[in-house]
Each structure stands twice: as C-alpha cells, then as structure tokens.
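Cross-check.
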Amino acid sequence: MFRPLPLFVGLRYTRAKRRNHFISFISMISMLGIMLGIVALIVVLSVMNGFHKEIQERILSMASHATIADPHGDMSDWRELLDRVREHAAVVGAAPFVELQGMLANGSEVSGALLRGIEPAEEDQVAELRRDMFRGDVDSLAAGSFNLILGRELAAVLGVGVGDKVTVVTPQISATPIGIMPRLKSFTVSGIFSVGMSDYDRGAGFMHLSDAAKLMSLGDDVTGLRLKLTDMFEAPRLAREVAYDLGGLYRVVDWTQYHQNFFAALSTEKRMMSIILFLIVAVAAFNIVSTLVMVVTDKRADIAILRTLGASPMRVMGIFMVQGTTIGVAGTLLGVVCGLLLAVNVEAIVSAIENLFNVHFLDPNIYYISRMPSDVHLSDVIAVGLGAFLMSVLATVYPAWRAARTEPAEALRYE
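Predicted model, tokenized:
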C-alpha cells in the first residue's frame, strides 16, 4: 500500500515513545488544551443560544411577529384589512388591538403602564397570554366589563389582587365644570399574568378592545393589527411581503425591529464571548509550536539522514506538519465529542450539582429563569471545530519550516 513519506514518518513520530518525556508531556497538554477550549466554546455557545431562545419565546408570548398600522393615525378600515391579511399565505393569525399609555393608581400607589385592548378569542391566534396567566382568566375581559389584567410585578407594586379596583389615568383630557381634567376610569383587576420578563410583568396590562376604544374615544377605530407568521425567524422577509401585498399603504413592523437594540446586544455578546473563549484554543495551539520546536531539535540527526538520503525540504516540512496536525485533529475530535455530550446534558448536570451541594445557580427572582437551557446549533459546532483545526495547522508551519532548513552537515558534525 502506497503511503507518502511525510505522512508515514509523521504518524510514526507521533506514535513513538520519545526519549524526552517532557516533549510527550507538552504534546499531551497541547491536545488537552485544544479539547478543553472546544468543550468550553460549544457548551457556552449552546447555553447562550438556549437563553436567547428562551428570551425570544417569552417576548413573543406577548409581542406579535408583526404589526400593521396606519401611518397617518388610527385604523378605521381594520375589518376589511383583517380579512385581506388572513388570506395571505404567510399569515397564521391576525387580531386587532388598541394601545395606550397610562397611569395606574391604587390609593397612594401610582405606576405607569403600557395598556393594550384586545379581543380575547382573536388574541389567542397571535399571542400566548392565556398560557402565561398566573391568576384569573383571559375570558374575564368582556366588552363593557371594564376589567383589567395586570403583570405580576405591576400588581405587586400597586398592591392589588384579583377583584381589587385600580384607576386608569390616560393622557386624553376632558372638559369639566372645574376645568380641564385628565380622563379617569375605574377598572377591576380580573387577572394577573407572569411572563418572566420585567418589561411585561412590571409595565403591561390588558383590557377588552371596546373598553380601550371607549377610554381613548376612538369609536370603532383601532390602533392596528397584530400578526402571527408561519416562521418567526423569517419575520422580516414575510412582513415585507405582507406590506407589499397591501400596496404599501400601511406601516408593517416585525418583532426584530421592536427589539432591535436588545437582540443586537445579545448577538454582540455571543460574538465577543466566542472570541474570548477561542483564546483558550489559541493558547493550546501555541503549545503545539513549542512542542514541535523541541521535537525538531531532538530529531536533528534524523532530519539530516533523511536529507542525505534524498528527502526534499518540502517533504521534511510535511513530516512535522503531519505530526502537529495529528495533535490538533485528536484534540479537536475529542473536544467536539465531549462538548456535544456536555452541551446536550448540561441542564441535567447542573441540576444534579445543585441537588448534590444544595445550591441554586439561577435565582428566578433575579434571572427570571430557574434552569440552564441549552440549544446546540450545528453551525456553531462546525465553526468551532474548523477554527480549532485551522489554528492547529497554522501552528505547525513555523517549526516545520525550521526543520526543512536544517543543514545535514551541520546537524551530523557532532554525532
């Protein structure tokens, strides 16, 4: 069987027991360093992906995939538009809404909130409010009932529970015999929801669509329509398609635009964390350089003999590149396998450690999540593996080049 000289000798050098045990030790440290760096990268990226996915799901349980609004004000032709939008192939569900900002008051306790008027039956098509109910029921939002569903933290700040009264103060004004007064209306708290996101639990409330329209003096108009699309990750493209089919007369905004800065920060965090952790792999790859430099020094006589027998400098260079690459490949494969096993089972492992040492790493009162989520992306694993492999190959170039420049006569002078 034909085997190229650099591959044959390089693999033989890798398997051989060296006289200098320190070189073997450094080789093992290099391989373990690459393995640990890859394991750390895969696990951390998978956990970050899990957190990002969890946050996206929580945001989209309240926020719709996209919204349609009239750029000139409130929407009066929304019923006709609702039928047109529901016929679009990319739209799974659609629901009208009225949005307003107001102040909620209970005695001396006052807090601002973003309030939304909804139709409970149609809201189920675009959001998961029913799933996130902590107390009460979404169906309590009946037309004319003037009931209100509050976030859990907002209800705690106001000191109210189900059945209590709160006063809603809107920016609209009313003329009264004693002068201009803000519009006030007493609502009954009929439910409390808990999403696990402070933006909603602390600052959001829901009422019936008709009650919100009366409060804002909109008559039969609404603020806009909320859409649920076939693929939330394709929302920017699908939203543009919907806007195009509507003739460009309405403003269509997808969920990534509503939370653009937040998700841009998450993306930047993931990118920077990848760069920082990849330095572990870089350090291990530099250990390959020191290993091969010592191997080249140890094998000067062997190199001289090979050169004397006719081996070209490129073949000598290939021998040591094969040896260094073998260390990198072994570390990369071990790292990918161990990293995948750990990333897939990280939730169970963290839970076992918490039970064993009676600790709790993620306090739900601080992080709004009590478990360690993990979402392994094949693209991340491939990128980490290829990056580690390429860095290992590059680390072999300089020592192998030094080996190729070895002069046979000089190396054999004192042998």
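The chain has 16 helices and ten strands. The longest strand covers residues 91-106. Passed to J.P. for a second look.
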